[in-house]
């Protein structure tokens, strides 16, 4: 005789069904339209396909070996990390400071939040032209301003060398992205129920103390998500760099994102037709980013405070 | 609300003001230069226009026909956001609250997906969609945009769902709610700020996305506004007509800003505290 | 809530599916009407695009053939790559346009295009008895030939490169146009003494950076040797001319003939600087006047002179010729596509193009205003070659090694001798 399922087993099956139904739509699309093409791209990374035509021969690990001895690959990797660290520090330091100031001292919060988010709304590709203007050696606003106040010796070719170029790019990146992370942090702060602050306020704690001892730990989870997002997005950075320097001069300001594009599609006048190698670089990027994020998550894992 | 101390207020405004000036000045430059001729721009980028050259806006509007694609953009982006947010909320909720075999693998696959630069997927995706005969339709772009945004969206939403209080959910289950009902009636609405936040971020990305739009669409029925902007930027760069380019930038910002500011209040709206404590 | 959301989503999906099906149905099955698909690298709104729209519309009206033109913008090759990779020939366009060097590079590597010699010789040009093939300037046609000698693309314009100069600035200061390199150096010195920047140069624009050096080498060693050096077959130190050309460049840098802060100048600031009267000369392709149309002051007069010659060049008088060319894909209906292209070269359209200051590739094309000297230069040319000495075909080497090292030379970071040494080392390393 078939045994009737116990209530427990019933619940378990229902739960399993629930889990499956809820995961299915998103992961089905993800699998078909993202993972599958990505695997195809990985396959391409082992060939020497130019990207055109259908002649591609299997290359084994040649592409990967080539990548490791490619000077520009290491330059771009270094630049990506420099941007990630430098930009990350600026963005998150400022975002936390601004979030603190806005939640504690400002009445018309929406004004600042909207304003700071504005750059993120604009098409990066179009606005980088403006930034190139600003940093231009001859016509640039920055240099004119420096000369006007007598700081002539600082008026260099900003986009003309690796250090100043990456510095300029990092600043522009921070300018574009600050609002985004500020809003993430701000919305996390607003979700904290007021009741948690009441006791501290009654005890006469200062704003700063409240921020560090109460707010900060409670938004930790979302903050770490935000930083992980920054790590990934900054390593993938493309449009800002491509718009400002196209990786130049002399391939010195390439980041991973632009070097991949350069190898896949080239520039208008100098085509490279090397999709196989570009895919190899992309695989490297994914590996680096995944390691970076996973390591970061492990290092900062903390017990989440339930409230 | 928090301790609104009057003491630090001016200082706060000053600090915030510095960054505000940085943003406003750039926008100001874009706006004033949209009224100048190219020669004037190069003469002095900071100067006010001697004469309001409205023809820059006319050139930008007519040449790029930005607003012809406006409705396409609205439909594509709107549909994507609705579908994306709903299915990702479902998946993120499960990944956040339930332990099951394969959970960690799925999360790792999400992180993996986020790191992939989209440009590499263009060619394989094109082959696939061409075989499915879906090329050059709005549906095709919607499918692609949804799929590409899934990793980021799920990842952020997992964080949000992790931070939501568990007592509400447990209370609902004890009361006899099915898991499904618990989600739709309680957890989903609770996560609204997070949902709107992630939706608006996705909105911005899609609104300005032009490369995929260029590759996967050809006819006017499916072209997006972002592509119009990209075409404008290209053509203005090659004729060095920066005045019209800045006019185009300003034109693109306006609808995006309006839409964002409309939904802003949902993002910032507070959580219903009463349900937990009261 | 759940039901409402589900309903809304389902409704939305349904509407979208219907919408997509509707557009699917409309596009296919037009009842046997002939069509040509053209993926252009122009953007809507560009002057050239507007010009093209005139003959596209006229052609559709006159012949009833539908032109499916897609204005993709400069990234059109990404779209083309995807279409070819997807394997189905239905998705491919019939006609594309690109710079001739790109078309030929693609032809060499992947054989994408249709050879056109026979077709063009057999077709008559619209409205005349001459074969379509014969209305073109030979030089322009030859720039469209691949290594197998066959013609794969049709020139839409014919550009050359030359030194642009500010005519009034020269006249007012009593400076005469130089023809030799020594005279050129004198002219630079004269302008420098007057406090005017002799040469405008973009320090960080990859595309133009190597041009001065390439042109010197084209003349002094010849294109073949230059290309051989880029292939690693000939050492850069083996021919003393390479060093001489590099020393010329170094002299330009050391004598301070470039404008102040040129190290940080990015396109288009140098050419704007030049046309605003900041510098005397600027080396560029003859697309410059139409590019600068918006920015040129009313009373500015510009003209061109050929790249200054050395006394004992291996390949004297070589000039660059290139342009944007039409190309027909291999599997397309070549006759129909050619008919359309043929139509576009009728006098009225070609003249309209010349009015946009775009030099015509036709033998008796209307001269473009301000570029009359171009025909003189090309008439006096002993031979022609592709833009940038066709070194662009060595994609990776050209960007990574060649342009990089020249950039260091032009920024004064290396001496000429160091440059040659590094080129040899890097080339050997690259090709090992």
Describe the structure.
The complex is a heterotrimer of chains A (307), B (278) and C (432). Chain A has one domain (64-299): MetI-like fold (Orthogonal Bundle). In chain A, 71% of the residues lie in helices and 0% in strands. Chain A contains 13 helices and no strands. The two termini of chain A are 49 Å apart. Chain A has helices at residues 7-44, 62-68, 71-105, 109-121, 124-135, 141-148, 162-190, 195-202, 207-218, 220-235, 239-244, 256-265, 275-299. Chain B has helices at residues 9-33, 38-43, 55-64, 70-97, 103-115, 122-131, 138-163, 167-174, 179-190, 192-207, 211-216, 225-238, 242-268, 274-277. The longest helix of chain B is centred in the first third of the chain and has 28 residues, at 70-97. With 432 residues, chain C is of the alpha/beta class. Chain C contains 18 helices and 11 strands. In chain C, the strands form 3 sheets. A 5-stranded mixed β-sheet of chain C has the order 2-1-3-10-4. A 4-stranded mixed β-sheet of chain C has the order 6-7-5-8. Chain C has a two-stranded parallel sheet with strand order 9-11. In chain C, helix 9 (211-220) runs antiparallel to helix 11, helix 11 crosses helix 18 and helix 17 runs antiparallel to helix 18. Residues 20-31 of chain C have low confidence and may be disordered. Classes of the chains: A mainly alpha (307), B mainly alpha (278), C alpha/beta (432). Chains in contact: A-B, A-C, B-C. At the A-B interface, helix 1, helix 3, helix 4, helix 5 and helix 7 of A face helix 1, helix 4, helix 5, helix 6 and helix 7 of B.
Give helix % range of chain C.
40-55%
Question: What is the mean pLDDT of chain C?
Answer: 85
Spans of at least 5 consecutive residues with low confidence of chain A = none
Q: What is the level-2 CATH architecture name of chain A?
A: Orthogonal Bundle
Rg over C-alpha atoms of chain A, rounded to the nearest angstrom: 25 Å
Stated plainly, the CATH topology of the largest domain in chain C is called D-Maltodextrin-Binding Protein, domain 2
Structural class of chain A: mainly alpha
**Shape by Cα distribution of chain A:** flat
Total domain modules of chain C? 2
Give the integer mean of the pLDDT values of chain A: 84
Distance between the termini of chain C: 68 Å
Order of helices and strands of chain A: HHHHHHHHHHHHH
Fourth-tier CATH superfamily name of the largest domain in chain C: Periplasmic binding protein-like II
**What is the makeup of the main sheet of chain A?**
none
- Proportion of beta-strand residues of chain C: 5-15%
Strand elements of chain A, count: 0
CATH topology of chain A: MetI-like fold
